[in-house]
Design a protein that fits this description.
By secondary structure, the protein is an alpha/beta fold. The protein has 2 domains: about 160 residues, Exopolyphosphatase. Domain 2 (Nucleotidyltransferase, domain 5, 2-Layer Sandwich), CATH 3.30.420; about 190 residues, Hypothetical protein af1432, CATH 1.10.3210.10. Helices cover about 55% and strands about 10% of the residues. The strands form 2 sheets. The chain has a 6-stranded mixed β-sheet with strand order 3-2-1-4-6-5, sandwiched between helices. Strand 2 and strand 3 form a beta hairpin. The chain is globular.
Length: about 375
């Protein structure tokens, strides 16, 4: 990673992902010790901070969870030691921005700053308040508490008094290859990243749609029985690749995209994986017939249909391709009825989005869904 300074001696590198956290000990990108822990900003947030709510009890539960995950590797890493600790992930960079805004650290992240941030999280109490106080995007705010607990717990357990933050990302270059060796679930993630690069897709738009799709999923996963982690992955991958058909033509690009994904060689993806991915991309816009997913396994078809509804909404909300963050959204569902709420006055200020949602409601109605918004 070019943005990590070349420091002699042992370095600890930390990457907090959505479902796992990677720790690497080494010198100049030559790894001496690698480990992957099954805890990340998304998984801890889902387990302990339902709907972005933070309380003392929830914090303690999350901290205990993180301590238990760290216990098997704690002494091993502390015994080996290091001169510099470096973090590089969206979670860690977001935490650095917050502690800098609060004036708790001028550069990097200190253990003292993390202790202050813990108290501040209890003061804010909810993801919406975090978003307002620290200008976090809504999707980041929803998983901020989980990411914080992972980083704080790690720094406490490993006696990391200060962590520098790389402006790059560990998923680049050599470090990305290192992570691939220790993340069993990374094969498909890396395949998706390769496809995005190969087809020169708009990464920023893909990330915007993906983040909003996940935000919507997080609000309805229980009511719609979409709690399986694999379903969240499928939604994310479809969101990131939904524009792949633009390589061929703008007209009917969703159909071309589905064809590409169904017939492409995608390492790590099973045949059923590809069929689901293709189906989600095929139906992310325009016609949405009730029988669109009948070719999928019987138990998967209704879940795929619901995932696609969330993907369609995310695409509609980002149709303008604006770099500005969306406001805090609230989606509630009851069977086939959806109620999507925006802050007062936002839709009046964004009439094109209102028009797009009105059109989308007509498409969804043909599949038996009723979308209300305001």
């Amino acid at each position: 990673v070019h943005n990590v300074a070349d420091v002699s001696g042992q370095r600890l590198v930390v990457d907090i992902g959505g479902g796992s956290t990677e720790l690497i000990l080494g010198q100049k990108f030559e790894p001496h010790h690698l480990t992957s822990l099954k805890m990340g900003c998304v998984s801890v947030s889902r387990a302990c901070f339902d709907k972005g709510r933070v309380t003392e009890t929830r914090l303690r539960d999350a901290e205990l969870l993180v301590q238990l995950k760290l216990e098997p590797v704690r002494e091993e890493f502390r015994d080996q030691g290091w001169q510099v600790a470096t973090g590089a992930s969206g979670t860690i960079k977001a935490i650095q921005e917050v502690v800098k805004k609060e004036g708790w650290s001028r550069e990097g992240i200190t253990l003292d700053a993390l202790r202050r941030l813990r108290a501040a999280l209890l003061e804010t109490g909810r993801a919406e308040a975090m978003s307002a106080r620290w200008q976090l995007e809504p999707a980041r705010a929803q998983v901020f508490a989980g990411g914080f607990v992972v980083l704080h717990g790690l720094c406490e357990a490993l006696d990391v008094e200060r962590m520098e933050v790389s402006e790059g990302a560990l998923r680049e270059g050599v470090i990305y290859d290192l992570l691939g060796r220790i993340r069993h679930e990374d094969v498909r993630d890396r395949t998706i990243a390769t496809v995005i690069d190969r087809y020169d897709l708009d990464k920023a738009q893909a990330e915007r749609v993906s983040a909003t799709a996940w935000l919507l999923l997080n609000q309805v996963r229980d009511a719609w029985h979409l709690t399986a982690e694999e379903l969240a992955h499928n939604l994310e991958w479809a969101a990131r690749l939904h524009e792949i058909g633009l390589l061929l033509t703008h007209d009917q690009y969703h159909k071309h995209g589905a064809y590409i994904l169904e017939h492409a060689e995608l390492p790590g993806f099973s045949r059923s994986d590809q069929l689901l991915l293709a189906a989600l991309v095929r139906r992310h816009r325009r016609g949405f017939p009730a029988k669109a997913f009948e070719h999928l396994p019987k138990e998967l078809a209704p879940l795929a249909q619901r995932l696609c509804v969330l993907l369609r909404l995310a695409v509609v909300l980002h149709r303008g391709r604006s770099r500005h963050a969306l406001p805090m959204l609230n989606l509630q569902v009851e069977r086939q009825r959806l109620e999507l709420r925006f802050p007062e006055g936002w839709l009046d200020a964004n009439p094109l989005t209102r028009a797009d949602l009105t059109s989308e409601a007509r498409y969804l109605k043909k599949a038996g869904f009723r979308l209300e918004f305001g």
